[in-house]
Amino acid sequence: MSLVNCPECQQLYKELDEYIDSVKGNTGVLINVLHKAQEIFGYLSEELQQHVSEKLDIPLSQVYGVVTFYNFFSMKPKGKNQIKVCLGTACYVKGADKILERLQDELNVEMNEPTSDGLFSIHAVRCLGACSMAPVVLIGEDDYYGRVSPDEVSKILDKYRRAE
Ligand code: FES
Fold first, then answer.
1. Which residues neighbour 144 within 8 Å (Cβ) at sequence distance 6 or greater?
2. Which of these CATH numbers, 3.40.30.10, 3.90.1300.10, 3.60.21.10, 3.40.50.720, describes 81-162?
3. Which Pfam families does the UniProt entry name for this protein (predicted)?
4. Using a 6 Å cutoff on CB, does residue 30 contact ligand 1?
5. Which of 76, 122, 125, 132 has the fewest C-beta atoms under 10 angstroms from its C-beta?
6. pLDDT of the chain, 164 residues: tens digit per residue
């Protein structure tokens, strides 16, 4: 959708531009602006990176370099509830791959892509710092599920579906 025809997008870009104007010239401005852009839009599309490059007068290649270097930046949209499945050694030996498989079957979605309703996306991580509870799944920022079995997956997802 072109920006011209999307009042909501225009509003979001306006919000970002106001932030950019308030921090322009500060040190570390690019990372701060990218954080703000991701907070507003949810992810950093190519179009958005282009916009940041123009507004800050920084080459697009440099913006892209920073976005791809840090794993907290995402170039793809994520689901409302991000499901992080730990595939670290402790979790893997306790069957994390089976949890991942069940999640993908239940949600019918590829890794790192949002479900068609936008409610979930699945991401693999190396360790969630809770190895004693392996296998571990984290939903959102705080909902840790430990010693998860594949048969529990559906019940866990229902909790978030019901919250809608
Ligand atoms: S390896 Fe999974 S929480 Fe540490």
1. 128, 130, 133, 136, 137, 138
2. 3.40.30.10
3. 2Fe-2S_thioredx
4. no
5. 132
6. 445 456 778 889 999 999 999 998 888 899 999 999 998 888 899 999 999 999 999 999 999 999 999 988 989 888 999 999 999 999 999 999 999 999 999 999 999 889 999 999 999 998 999 999 999 999 998 999 999 999 999 999 999 999 87
Using the atom order of ligand 1, give the atom closest to the CA of residue 127: 4
The span from the CA of 89 to the CA of 51, in Å, is: 41
Q: Where are the domains of the chain?
A: 3-69, 81-162
91 lines ligand 1 (CB under 6 A): yes
Choose among 96, 95, 101: nearest CA to 86: 96
Ligand 1 site, residue 90, Cβ cutoff 6 A = yes
Tokens 């282009």 -> residue: 50
131 C-beta closer than 6 A to ligand 1? yes
Q: Which atom of ligand 1 is nearest to the CA of 130?
A: 3
